[in-house]
């Protein structure tokens, strides 16, 4: 029986004005998967327990087998746990040494000196070799590869003798083979008695590495599943269909005509792209580590040129320098969060102004602006409340803003709509809405090009057969 680190029974946690009910139990050397149905509410509140932002207001708490109060539990967690999330710490000034020592924990001078001595020890050198971390401590943090950065995070947890490591949605940033290498480092940490929590939406990843999976639904811990229940029982609880192997072959859509054709299109560090997308088709390009998305987005939004090849849109071959005049008219760009900089929405404008800004120029020079604006308002009122359309978009809730961003493309009707990681960072509850809007846009005849990490699990959950019919894998 492994020594218990943290246990919370019937826990009630308060985060701002919301209450959450979480059952927590983790022992030394144990890896627990945490499946959260809603990352922006339940998931954030659960993670905030380990950041010190969600406070325990009720229930029983135990630390290392001893009954403790809520404040003692919070103090123990802050002193003994580390969080590694999917957002890399970027810095041009920090070195590897700074990252693992200076940014470890807020501690006293003597404890930091002990950590520095441990970092110089033969034991640390052995651990770095086992984790395949062949890095100089003077190397700039910005020069470290993505995989080595997350390895460093795990090594830092070992160096500081953290009792608990929390890994948040790393499947969204690391490709499969890099995840396997990272989890080898995590196994070393588990062997040293550190407990690990895996927050993720990839059930295959959690099933492979977790000793148990806790399912968080509707702001509370609903289920605690063990390996013998990882099969059909897990899918039943998550409301999914059982996995089948026929998803990639599901697409049966025959597009009317080729809208996009790329031939030997070469970007730095990428193999040549060769494919075509028909009107009404949803074509999926798998990108496990975001490298392709970055290069393609830089091409369409930031002026990066391709090295070689042909880009042909609707029968016309375009040079890179000609793309700027197509973006926002013939080519739509939908990024992960449409209200970010370089997004497709202006938060300070009303929804109607957002639509008018892009549609009025397309209507031509000699138009009655007021009449066209009224027509836009009438059309958009079929989708959104008329009074909401006259409000600034910043006042809209996220799901509606997200839906509106796709509706804008639906009205503008570009020949090609490029969607970068449309499901990443979005709550599971919004996936079906995104799928519906992709199908709606495709039904207008647009060629839809989706660049994202694996979407197999999303395909398995959806009941939108039109989406599966139109979907085609490019790689």
CATH homology group of the largest domain: P-loop containing nucleotide triphosphate hydrolases
Share of residues in strands: 15-25%
Mean pLDDT: 85
CATH topology of the largest domain: Rossmann fold
CATH architecture assignment name of the largest domain: 3-Layer(aba) Sandwich
Task: Outline the secondary-structure elements.
Blueprint lengths: L3 E12 L2 E10 L3 E6 L2 H13 L3 E9 L2 E3 L1 H11 E4 L11 H7 L6 H11 L2 H9 L15 H14 L4 E5 L7 H16 L3 E5 L3 H7 L2 E6 L2 E6 L6 H7 L19 E9 L6 E6 L3 E5 L4 H11 L6 E6 L2 E3 L12 E4 L16 H13 L5 H12 L5 H4 L8 H15 L3 E5 L7 H16 L3 E6 L3 H6 L3 H6 E3 L2
Helix pairs in contact: 3-6, 6-7, 11-12, 11-14, 14-15
Describe the structure.
There is one protein chain. The protein has 475 residues and is of the alpha/beta class. The protein has two domains: 4-238, 3-Layer(aba) Sandwich (Rossmann fold); 258-348 and 392-473, 3-Layer(aba) Sandwich (Rossmann fold), CATH 3.40.50.300. Helices cover 37% and strands 24% of the residues. It has 17 helices and 19 strands. A hairpin with a 2-residue loop joins β1 (4-15) and β2. The radius of gyration is 25 Å and the shape is globular. Mean pLDDT is 85; it is low at 243-249.
């Amino acid at each position: 029986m492994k020594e218990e680190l943290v246990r919370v029974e019937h826990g009630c946690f308060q985060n701002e004005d919301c209450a959450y009910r979480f059952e927590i139990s983790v022992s030394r050397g144990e890896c627990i998967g945490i499946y959260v149905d809603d990352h922006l509410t339940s998931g954030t509140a659960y993670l905030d327990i380990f950041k010190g932002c969600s406070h325990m207001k009720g229930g029983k708490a135990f630390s290392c087998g001893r009954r403790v109060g809520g404040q003692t539990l919070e103090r123990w967690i802050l002193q003994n746990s580390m969080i590694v999330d999917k957002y890399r710490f970027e810095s041009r000034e920090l070195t590897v040494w700074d990252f693992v020592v200076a940014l470890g924990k807020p501690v006293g001078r003597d404890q930091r000196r002990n950590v520095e001595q441990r970092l110089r020890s033969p034991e640390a050198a052995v651990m770095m070799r086992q984790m395949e971390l062949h890095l100089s401590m003077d190397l700039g943090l910005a020069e470290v590869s993505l995989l080595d950065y997350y390895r460093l995070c795990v090594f830092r947890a070992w160096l500081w003798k953290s009792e608990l490591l929390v890994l948040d949605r790393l499947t969204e940033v690391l490709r499969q083979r890099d995840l396997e290498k990272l989890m080898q480092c995590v196994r070393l940490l588990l062997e040293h008695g550190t407990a690990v929590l895996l927050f993720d939406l990839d059930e295959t990843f959690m099933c492979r590495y977790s000793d148990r999976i806790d399912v968080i639904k509707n702001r509370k811990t609903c289920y605690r599943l063990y390996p013998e229940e990882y099969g059909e029982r897990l899918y039943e609880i998550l409301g999914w269909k059982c996995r089948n192997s026929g998803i990639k072959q599901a697409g049966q859509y025959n597009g009317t005509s080729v809208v996009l054709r790329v031939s030997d299109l070469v970007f730095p560090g990428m193999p040549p792209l060769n494919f075509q997308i028909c009107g009404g088709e949803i074509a999926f390009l798998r990108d496990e580590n975001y490298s392709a998305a970055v290069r393609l987005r830089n091409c369409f939004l930031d002026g990066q040129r391709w090295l070689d090849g042909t880009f042909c849109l609707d029968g016309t071959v375009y040079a890179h320098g000609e793309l700027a005049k197509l973006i926002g008219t013939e080519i739509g760009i939908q990024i992960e969060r449409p209200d970010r900089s370089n997004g497709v929405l202006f938060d300070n404008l009303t929804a109607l102004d957002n639509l008018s800004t892009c549609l009025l120029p397309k209507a031509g020079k000699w138009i009655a602006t007021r009449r066209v604006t009224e027509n836009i308002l009438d059309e958009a009122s079929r989708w959104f409340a008329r009074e909401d359309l006259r409000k600034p978009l910043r006042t809209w809730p996220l799901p509606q803003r997200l839906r509106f961003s796709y509706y804008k493309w639906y009205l503008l009707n570009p020949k090609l709509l490029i969607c970068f990681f449309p499901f990443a960072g979005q709550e599971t509850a919004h996936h079906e809405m995104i799928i519906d809007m992709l199908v709606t846009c495709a039904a207008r005849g647009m060629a839809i090009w989706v660049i994202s990490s694996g979407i197999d699990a999303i395909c398995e959950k959806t009941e939108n057969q039109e989406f599966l019919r139109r979907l085609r894998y490019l790689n």
